[in-house]
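G., the chain you wanted modeled:
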Amino acid sequence: MIAVARPRTRPMYRQGLRWMAATSLVLCPVLAQANTAASETAETMAVTRVEHWVQAPGAEPSIGPPADAAQGAWQPVDLPQAVRRDPTTRAAVNLPLPTVWYRMACPAPVAQETLALYLPRVNGGPLQVWMRTAQGTRQLLDNSPAWPSQWNQPILLRLPSAASQPNGSCRLFLALPPRADGSYALSRLWMGPEPEIQGLWSARQRWVVTVPLAASTTLVMLGLFSLAFWWRRRKDTAYLYFGLASLAWWFRNLHYGIDLPQNLDALRWFWWATDASMTWVMLLVYLFSLRFATRRFPWVERLLLGFALLISAVSMPVLPWALDTPLLLHTANTLVAMGVTLLIAGSAWRGSRELRVLALALCICLGLGVHDLALLQLRISPESLYLMPYAMVLVLGAFLYAVNRRYIGALEHAEGAAQVLQDKLSEQQRALQGNFALLAEVENERVRLTERQRLTRDMHDGLGAMLVSSLGQIEQGRLSQPEVAQVLRDCLEDLRLTIDSMEPIDQDLTTLLATLRQRVGHRLAQGGITLHWHMDDLPPLPWLDAPAALHVLRIVQEALANVVKHSGAANVTLSARLDAGPGVCVQIEDDGRGLQARPDGHQGRGLGHIEERARQLGGHARIVLGARGGTVVQLWLPLQGPPPLAEGFRHSRWPAP
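Predicted structure as tokens:
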């Protein structure tokens, strides 16, 4: 007896979608992608009603399906079918188990096309498929070698050409021993042209095998990166726990993509390691999440560690209750996960945003775990997907969000600290600028005071002394009116000379001497003396400030005054050139009667002043007879400042006139 129905929109996993609608909406696109593939083809058919018969324990299905004569034993059932064991009547482990038989008619023939059979899930012992036609009975599939991996992987079977005979005498038989606990399940069957059935099988294979393995591989790569980050920053234990959780999760999901061992003892130990690793994944994920809580829960962490050790010990397959271990283990994990997730959710209520996102992800993962536990107990449709392989994707998203928030928070903190430092620096800069302005004002005041003192001293020692001396001579009646006028002219020239020294000359000796030339040119002309000017291209003198300029002007003025008063010359030459010292040589040469020695052998007071001023400038002055008669006054000045003069320098440094 068989009922054939055309596929409807999203016919599979509707029960699972309702179960997860409140907590795992993020996985709805995944479920839709995995389940709508069957509804996109019009030539496939879903077998939703078959005949069912439970053969007595001890009979071997390998001898073939039962004879059609036993019609009363077959009962119609709807697919998918899930039969859970009764815990109160479970048989002992070593007792023989019955064999469950399903039979159905072969699909309607399709012209010249190869047919195929697709089963999304078979839950029980090794599956066998038989086909009976008028020509006889033949076995199409014996899944015993791959039976350990049958728990999750879909089955695809190509049907022989005899299955499409139009006589209607073809029947398919499925033999399925129950699990060791007496439960079994069978999803709907899909039959149709092989290309379309192949597409359905590939879609299912992708979501139950390929995607979980790809997600686990991606996660373990990020876990290794997290461990490398923790190795450089040992205090950030959240990265350690996430890295270890990623590795444990990768090990936990190995059974989704590898061939499980055929040996029964090895298989039990493998399932023990796989199931126990889920407890360690929980422990590491919760330790990772608690790193983001505002307060620590050391007692919770110790209890979780003790729970993981206890579960790993009591679930070993050598213990007498090992048959019930997977169900009890997952139930215990679910209960503990509920308690810790509620604790984290409560802490996240007033905690950081990262912890709230992690708590939401853990709540969704808890819902996925409850869904998978119900699927393991056959309480929901066996066609549903195990969703826990996708749970760590949510944890990964929460981890990336938390890391992103920490990174952005560190950047914002660094930028805030930099801004604070910048504000303090700006404040200090403004304070320094104020202090510099105050110091500049104080320095300017000091310079003005120094300049005042210098001017006062120069006027007192020069102009003042000259006026006092002349005033005494006038009062004594020793100066005639022309002499008084000459004294006043000398005082006026000295005053102008002081003023000229204050003019900005940019450390240019030529400009300074040109200013003096304008001042004394008329006086030389009144005395019938022609001034000749010879200046080389001279570099700036860094030390030539106002006081030094006044010394230079007084030296040259004194030399020119001597020419006017005593030489009787008709020509005087003022020149300046670079000297090999290195320095500058200023020379005043006239064509007068020459240097006249005093009867006592000493130089006059004016010549002594010239040498004294030259020494204050770091240079040297000397007065010699010219080669063609007359007097030559030579002034040597340094280029870079007034260095100490070695003994004998004043004679060896000057070339012959």
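The longest strand covers residues 45-55.

Shout if anything looks off.
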